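lol ok so funny story. i was supposed to be doing the assay writeup but got distracted and ended up predicting the structure for this chain instead. priorities right. anyway since i did it might as well share w the group, maybe its usefull for someone
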Amino acid sequence: MPVFSYTAADADTATVRGTITADTPRAARDQLRGQGLRVRKITPYKNQPQSNSPSGLSAGGANEKSQTTVVRARTGFSIGRWFGAASHRSAWATAVHELAMMLDAGLPILECLDTIAAQHRGNFRAAILQVRDDVAGGRSLAEALGRRPDFFDAASVQMVSVGENSGTLDRVLRELADFKRQQMSVRDRVSTALVYPAFLVVFASAAAVFLMTWVLPPLLESLEETSGALPWPTRMVSGFSNLLTQHAFGLCLGAVVVVCGLAISYRSRRGRYFWHRLLLRLPVLGSMAQKQNVARIAMVIATLSRSGVELTRAFELAEASTGSEPFRKALAIATKRISAGGEVADALTSSGVFPPLAVRVFSVGQESGKLDEMLFRLSEDYDRQVAVLSTRLTALIEPVLILVLATGIGFLLVATVLPILEAGNVMSQ
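and the output, tada:
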């Protein structure tokens, strides 16, 4: 049986070199991948051993462990651990742009993948190396990407497949890079708008719990001893403080039960549908969520349609790339009706989650043959509206939270100082 020399990387990004027996280079790669190694290079072994070779690599040794020499890399071990928590979607968006740029410059696909892998660490680097090995072994780039759905979404795989079949991979990758950049821009804009309010809520909650459990109890105890009847603000604060200090275990247990119950309900599809539907009905957040989802769906369908993907397949991929369950259900129903010869507008209107403007754009775009162009405009318009809404929401939430915090602090101050002032008035009389 043939023997192959290989260079690979283990889970700790250490360089591994050795030999392995297999029928073909593809079989050798599969064996090494089964051992948790990421193959970088594999070539036929120069000195093929005989059946009685002391190395033990006989014709029947296909299942024997390969002889390896491990060389610990000086760099990349700890760096991969530190930076391995980066978002996979963000890394893929950057990698698509780099891949399109290098292919447009005329570089071979394997060299492009090697360059991208050298710029990343951790799990994403391992995924890129696996894609590189699959392409070197004869698979298409779309097939290689499709073998790692945990890193590369179905829409990206479909667009790459269309680009490879039509011979326009560099152009399709540029469109995919623009698509990913717009997706990340919208997501980052909304996330940034909610970071500051979330920080204020968490900080205020932690500060309130600390004051009610550590600072106020001894002070309230001394006030109860020196004063007779306490004012109602002081009694209210004292009641909350006693509740937190005397029933802390029960409150924590109840909070854990509630959080676990919400998590379990959210993991089910029916539960996610309920919470997502509830989000869409909220006054301001609902409008933001609706327009953000419509913008994402329009962008996916427009990009895929421009790349040559048929409309029903574009709807299926848009459904797979959408996180909102009501929109997923609406797209699934629309896909079935379109496949049966129905109109897009009727299918989307029956769902009740698409706004009238989006339904009208789909209808006019399908009739005029300019669906991708009109969907891109719709996506851009809704992106701008989401940006405006997020800015207004941030501008509204900040003063409201500050006012709530000031009111809470003022109430605690009044509850603490009021008994002291009343005791001073009694003594002065």
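The longest helix spans residues 169-226. Strands lie at 3-9, 15-21, 38-44, 67-71.
back to the writeup now i swear
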